[in-house]
Amino acid sequence: MTKTPILEVRHLYKIFAPLDFRGEKKMAYKLLELGATRQDVFEATGMTAAVTDVSFQVEKGEIFVLIGLSGSGKSTLVRCLNMLHSPSRGEVLIDGEDITAYDEAKLQELRRTKISMVFQNGGLLAHRDVMGNVGYGLEIRGVKKEEREARALEMIRMVGLEGHERDRLDSLSGGMRQRVGIARALASDPDILLMDEAFSALDPLVKNDLQFELLRIQEQTGKTIIFITHDINEAFKLGSRVGILRDGRMVQLDTPEKMLSAPANDYVRRFIDSVDTTKVLTVKHIMTVPGSVIKKTDGANVALNSMRTSGVSSAYVVSDYMHFDGIITLEGALSVRDGRKTFEEAIIREVPFVRNLDAPVSSIVPLAAKTQYPLAVVDEHDVFRGIVTKASVLSSLSV
C-alpha cells in the first residue's frame, strides 16, 4: 500500500489578472499549456502567470526546499499551500484532503492547528514580549494562560532563548527575533511549517547558526518543513529534496546530490555553479574501503602479510562485530613479531575517526588535515565502515 504524502500539489496554477481581464483566463491557460512563457502570456492577455502547472509531493518529516530567483514564483507558491493565495487552478492536498475546497472557517482552523508560517520579517507583534508573541496563537485558540505559557516556555527553550521570555522585541537581534518567530510557529504543534525566506535578511554567521538550529529542531520534533530561499547553498544544506523554480515553472526537483551530478538543463547547471560542494557531498560519498583490515585475534604475521599484499604500511584493526579498535603500523607489527611488544600494545588507538556518514565533507576538513592516517569512518554502533583519505577530501574540494 502506497504511503500518503502529508502534502501534495497537483497541477497548480496561480494567475493574477485585473478584474476587467477575467474573460481572458482561458486564453492564458491555453497559451501556458502550449509552453508559452510568462512574458508571452502577459503580452497576449495582460495576465501574470505567477505559478504554472506545478506538481510535487512532500513526505512527513521531510525538509523540502523551493528555490528560485526573485520573481520565480516561490513565495506565491508557498502562500498557495496555506491558501493565503487562492490557486487559480489545481489542488493542494494535506493528508489527502483538497484544501482549495475549504470554506473560510475550515481554512482558519487549518492555519491554527495544522500549518504554520514563518516570514522573512518574522511578522511579530512589537507591543508584546517574547512570551506574549510565542503564545499568541494559543491565546487566539482560547488555550488557558497557564497551559499556553508552559507550552510557550517549552518552545522558547527549544530555540535557545531561555532567559529572554520577558524581553521586548526591540531589545533582540535579528537572529533572536527569527528564533521567536520559529518558536511561535511551533507552539501550536503544527504538522507542517512553512518558512518563506526566513533567514535571508540575516548576516552569514547568524544565518549559519539558525540553519544548524533548524536541522536540530527538525530532528527533535520530526516536523515537515517547506523552506523557501534564493540561496543555493542554503537549499542544499537544509533540503532532503530541492525544487528549482523559473518563471513560475518547476524546472527540476531532486536530491542535492542528483541535482549536482545530473542538472536538468543549462539553467539549472548555471544556477548550481556557485554551490560549495563540500557542504553537499558527505562522508559516505568520498569514503573508500581500506586496503588492509584485520581482526584483533589475527596476530602480527597476518597483519604483516595483509599490509604486504595490499602495498600499505598500516592496517585497520577491528574486534568482534567489526567494531573499530585502532591501527597497527608496519613498525608495530614487526615489534610484535620480534617479541618487543604485545599485539594489544602495538595497536594505536588514538586515531581520529568520524561517526557520521552523512556529515558534510566541509566539517571534516580540519580533522583530515592534521591527522597522520586516513580517517576511520564508523556508524552509530561503532561498526567500521571505511576510511577517508586526505586525497579524497582534496579531490572533493576541487569538484
TrEMBL record:
It catalyses: a quaternary ammonium(out) + ATP + H2O = a quaternary ammonium(in) + ADP + phosphate + H(+). Residues 36-272 form the ABC transporter domain. Keywords: ATP-binding, CBS domain, Cell inner membrane, Cell membrane, Membrane, Nucleotide-binding, Transport. Its EC number is 7.6.2.9. It is an enzyme of class 7 (translocase). GO terms for biological process: amino acid transport; glycine betaine transport; response to osmotic stress. InterPro entries: AAA+_ATPase, ABC_osmolyte_uptake_ATP-bind, ABC_transporter-like_ATP-bd, ABC_transporter-like_CS, CBS_dom_sf, Gly-betaine_transp_ATP-bd, P-loop_NTPase. GO terms for molecular function: ABC-type quaternary ammonium compound transporting activity; ATP binding; ATP hydrolysis activity. It is a peripheral membrane protein. It is found in: Cell inner membrane. Coiled coil: none annotated. GO terms for cellular component: plasma membrane. The keyword Iron-sulfur does not apply. Pfam families: ABC_tran (PF00005). The complex is probably composed of two ATP-binding proteins, two transmembrane proteins and a solute-binding protein. PANTHER family: GLYCINE BETAINE/PROLINE BETAINE TRANSPORT SYSTEM ATP-BINDING PROTEIN PROV, GLYCINE BETAINE_PROLINE BETAINE TRANSPORT SYSTEM ATP-BINDING PROTEIN PROV. Belongs to the ABC transporter superfamily. This is Quaternary amine transport ATP-binding protein.
